[in-house]
């Protein structure tokens, strides 16, 4: 019976690999051209929707709310055009609302709660990962980290939480470049890991540990401070134990959504440009980083939570993406 179980397990694994390979073949054949990651009409709705909710969370003063909304509409009217990157406009929106309301981090309590929830399910995921063959662990850890990316407050149509994410664990990655990533990692490879949201950063610790097991020296970078939506800050990273999971834990040196090298200190720019591999979590990093040539092979790991980003990467909405681009690549 034991022998039968082992054989069945190995056969199942081969079937799954064959299915994944076939899906990858279809993706290569039918993958449409990538679109530039600029604002579309749908982005306007999302930017305003999230802006209103940020204002509402930031203050109970109706006069302040009205003032902030008027300023937000003015910002949108002056900057919503075909040359604008959604996350860059989103960052300006956050700064504007913070300046008027005096609240820099309206998601503070929600982020703490998501960190707590993620830490509750982390042992279960660690147990699942621990039972896998070493050859399967990177792919699984990427899926776990990517599934944590379902959480994003106030994205219209996206109401997922970490409990929902667990149900998605059996889904394949729609774009699956984890084996390509593995082939690039050697002992001592300098890998820069760019985090995204609070909550999911707890699940990122599993991936960081796996990358280190494969030999990479992993530097994890979180945002330098609010306003940055629900992005993970240093206090979130420390709360979930990222300082123990990574070789080095730093900030990007910038209070921005995504990566803004024009706002980053020189020491971070040097670190970014000298990395041998970059792993970038979340849609905002995709939106901002694809504006300039990749300084090294870069794996984008995120969930397609909105139509413009899904269209840009060439995938349906609601899919998990692990997309490796070569040095010098840009949209």
What amount of the residues lies in strands?
A: 5-15%
- Strands ordered across the widest β-sheet: 1-7-6-5-2-3-4
Q: Uncertain segments of ≥5 residues (pLDDT<50)?
A: 1-33
Tertiary shape? globular
Mean pLDDT: 88
State the major sheet. 7 strands, mixed
Considering the protein shown, what is the CATH homologous superfamily of the largest domain?
Answer: Uncharacterised protein PF01937, DUF89, domain 3
Compute the number of structural domains. Answer: 2
Give the SSE order as H and E letters.
HHHHHHHEHEHEHHEHEHEHE
Number of E-type strands? 7
Structural class: alpha/beta
Q: What is the highest CATH level, the class of the largest domain? A: Alpha Beta
N→C terminal distance: 53 Å
Label the CATH architecture of the largest domain: 3-Layer(aba) Sandwich
> Could you name the CATH topology of the largest domain?
Rossmann fold
User: How large, in whole angstroms, is the Cα Rg?
Assistant: 20 Å
Characterization of the model:
With 331 residues, the protein is of the alpha/beta class. It has two domains: 30 residues; 218 residues, Rossmann fold, CATH 3.40.50. It contains 14 helices and seven strands.
What layout of secondary structure does this protein have?
Layout: H1 2-30, H2 41-58, H3 62-79, H4 86-101, H5 108-130, H6 134-148, H7 162-167, E1 175-176, H8 178-184, E2 190-194, H9 200-213, E3 217-222, H10 234-239, H11 242-245, E4 248-251, H12 266-274, E5 277-281, H13 283-289, E6 298-303, H14 307-313, E7 320-325
Parallel strand pairs: 1-7, 2-3, 2-5, 3-4, 5-6
Antiparallel strand pairs: 6-7
């Amino acid at each position: 019976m034991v022998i039968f179980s082992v054989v069945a397990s190995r056969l199942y694994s081969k079937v799954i690999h064959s299915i994944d390979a076939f899906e990858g073949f279809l993706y290569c054949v039918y993958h449409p051209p990538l679109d530039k990651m600029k604002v579309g009409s749908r982005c306007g709705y999302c930017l305003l929707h999230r802006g209103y909710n940020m204002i509402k969370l930031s203050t109970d003063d109706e006069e302040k709310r009205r003032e902030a909304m008027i300023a937000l509409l003015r910002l949108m009217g002056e900057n919503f055009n075909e040359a604008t990157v959604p996350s860059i406009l989103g960052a300006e929106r956050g700064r504007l609302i913070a300046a008027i309301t005096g609240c820099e981090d309206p998601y503070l309590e929600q982020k703490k709660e998501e960190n707590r929830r993620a830490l509750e399910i982390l042992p279960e995921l660690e147990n699942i990962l621990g039972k896998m063959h070493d050859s399967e662990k990177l792919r699984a850890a990427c899926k776990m980290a990517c599934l944590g990316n379902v959480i994003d407050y106030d994205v219209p149509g996206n109401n997922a939480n970490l409990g929902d994410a667990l149900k998605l664990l059996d889904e394949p990655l729609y774009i699956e470049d984890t084996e390509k990533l593995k082939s690039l990692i050697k002992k001592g490879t300098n890998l820069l890991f760019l985090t995204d949201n609070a909550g999911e950063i707890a699940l990122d610790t599993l991936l960081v540990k796996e990358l280190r097991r494969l030999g990479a020296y992993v530097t994890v970078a979180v945002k330098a401070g609010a306003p940055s939506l629900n992005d993970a800050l240093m206090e979130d990273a420390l709360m979930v134990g990222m300082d123990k999971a990574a070789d080095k834990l730093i900030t990007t040196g910038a209070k921005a959504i995504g990566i803004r090298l024009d706002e980053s200190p020189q020491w971070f720019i040097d670190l970014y440009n000298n990395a041998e591999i970059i792993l970038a979590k979340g849609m905002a990093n995709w939106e901002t980083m694809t504006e300039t040539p990749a300084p090294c092979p870069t794996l984008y790991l995120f969930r397609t939570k909105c139509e413009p980003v899904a269209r840009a990467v060439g995938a349906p909405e609601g899919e998990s993406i692990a997309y490796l681009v070569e040095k010098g690549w840009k949209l």
